[in-house]
Design brief:
Two copies of one chain form a homodimer. Chain A is of the alpha/beta class and 371 residues long. The first copy, chain A, is 42% helix and 15% strand. Chains A, B: One of its GO terms (molecular function) is L-serine-pyruvate transaminase activity.
């Protein structure tokens, strides 16, 4: 007989999920109502307004996709790409690689611009690719690489794309609410994020925003979007704009209560204060790590404060150390991926995890397991 | 300033979501842990075992898709269909129509077998379609049509498909836990359901199960699955079978706590007892409706006990009546779809909604608004 699951109380300092604030956990358990209930539709409008605030955009087509960040990514690619479209994809980590998969599975042609993992996207290489591919329709890049903790220069990449008349698809799953994400100022056309990073919410929902130019591109497609579930032409009928709400799929009601609460909290704190808190906690962690001889993978200029990719000290076994952190300290940090497996740890300071107690626990626990 | 959302306390007797049991709401708010945490992976194994129980199957590839039922549907179609494949699709309601969309968007050719909405799928027509299309690869049908409350003869349809060497895709979003769903006995190859119906859980997750024959078909594809997010070759790497758990996407942790709890409750009650409860509540509702002159859309032999499509009495305005039920009784029932809009109500008795108090409330409230 299988019984109720009682999860342990962990401190989550990996690449996500991050610690979920008690207010958000409480919101998840509120009474379920219908997805066409007028009360729910009012909440949906608030979620859209709050997401516009988080993304710093006035895009009407700003909403939460009813599935994790990977589905938000897929929503951007399948809606904008038609068979044969050329897409320049910047690859400097796991999520750039996943973008390539999305392009080819959507029938597009991917032009790959590679940079070493741990480095930001090189704008010179991108400019060269745009010049040699004047027929490219889209430039796709990862603003905040979750696999390496690198921030790329989103403003410069968007400007290059505009200068070459390309649409921009931008991944900021780990960026949103941790560092500035200026969708309108930069001119990014299709942007996706996740709830389980700097929004401190549970995983499972992907906020997305599409510029008017992107929405127009979707409305004018010659071929149907290959995914029925992610077809924005249909999703728009439920999420608006406009008063009429046509049933498309059943929204994940309680998960959206959680997202709403996390966005209310972000608005209460204020975007700038949230960025400042992530930066302050990052500096505190960085200084503490330096004292115990742990250095960073990424150059200071390109580090995401919320995702600290650090070098595992020589002589320390990765799996053993992370196992001890989990079992002795209930602390989760992330493993390295790809070539960095066994060499790098990823320490998240995202959302509710970006606070003094967590930094202190992490430093104390690391001190204990690496000695 | 937008503040926390406090939903009203409704009684949910529409086509889903159904009332969520307090134990499940409580489970949703338990502490979030990581998607690669050994404690979480233990819970995943339990969810798989419990889903096998619910689906009455030993299929190893039985798991919850991290998105609503529509995505579960899409997972079945995009994984089994390759461009040019012929699929016989039975259409007797909204969800059969949606299957057609899924076939064509996956590059398949849909052979449509229509029956009137409110009627079950006609096995003679299906047999004829199988005979005139010996090259068909798949037969797809809806076991329990949420749009009309009709149950089709799944055993007979699966047998026909087997006799003609076709794979079966079956929609039982509204069926699971409300009426018998015998995946192995019937020989259905790819089956999807939802959490927000007779499992009484919140919406957002889609349980699916694939037979070994379906899994083999997926492994031997000549073309990649068009959806990266739903590619079962990749999802299998995270959900097993096998001990190694490769990161694919971040699982919706807390939503899965809810599903786990709902499945534990189903196991405690027992499948047969759950079916009997749905049937008993249906009969009580039916008898009460008869007393106030409300009859059914569907013939008795093909009615789903958990979804009662009933005729709106003459002279009663649909929207006004449902508005009063919601505003005066906090009771949600469902509208009719398509040709049945304004003519039919859909009264759900699913999961935790299938209890005496709900039936009584519904009868009392209907009496008040139709007089």
């Amino acid at each position: 007989m299988i019984t109720s699951f009682k999860p342990p109380q962990r401190t989550l300092m990996g690449p996500g999920p991050s610690d979920v604030h008690p207010r958000i956990l409480e919101a998840l358990g509120r009474p379920t109502i219908g997805h066409l209930d007028p009360a729910f539709i009012g909440m949906m409008d608030e979620v859209k307004t709050l997401l516009q605030y988080a993304f710093q955009t006035e895009n009407a087509l700003t909403l939460p996709v009813s599935a994790p960040g990977s589905a938000g990514m897929e929503a951007c690619f399948v809606n904008l790409i038609e068979p044969g479209d050329k897409v320049i994809v910047c690859v400097n980590g796991v999520f750039g690689t996943r973008m390539i998969e999305n392009v080819t599975r959507s029938g597009g042609e991917a032009i790959r611009v590679d940079d070493a993992w741990g480095q930001p996207v090189d704008t010179n290489k991108v400019e060269a690719a745009l010049e040699t591919n004047p027929d490219a329709k889209i430039l796709a890049f990862v603003h905040a690489e979750t696999s390496t903790g690198v921030e790329s220069d989103a403003a410069a990449l968007c400007a290059l794309a505009k200068a070459h008349d390309c649409l921009v698809i931008m991944d900021t799953v780990t960026g949103l609410a941790g560092v500035p994400v200026k969708v309108d100022e930069w001119g990014a056309d299709a942007v996706y994020s996740g709830t389980q990073k700097c929004l401190s919410c549970t995983p499972g929902i992907s906020p997305v925003t599409f510029s008017e130019r992107a929405a127009e591109t979707i409305r004018n497609r010659k071929t149907p979007v290959q995914s029925w579930f992610l077809d924005m032409n249909l999703v728009m009928g439920y999420w608006g704009p406009g008063a009429k709400r046509a049933y498309h799929h059943t929204a994940p009601i309680n998960a959206l209560y959680g997202l709403h609460e996390s966005l209310v909290m972000l608005q209460e704190e204020g975007l700038e204060a949230s960025f400042a808190r992530h930066k302050a906690m990052h500096e505190k962690l960085r200084d503490g790590l330096a004292e115990i001889g742990i250095g960073y993978l990424v150059d200071e200029a390109h580090r995401l404060p919320q995702l600290n990719a650090v070098m595992i000290p020589q002589g320390v076994d990765d799996a053993t150390a992370r196992g001890r952190l989990l079992n002795e300290f209930n602390l989760e940090i992330g493993a390295g991926l790809g070539d960095f497996a066994g060499k790098v740890w990823r320490i998240g300071l995202m959302g509710y995890s970006a606070r003094e107690e967590n930094v202190q626990l992490c430093l104390d626990a690391l001190k204990a397991v690496i000695k």
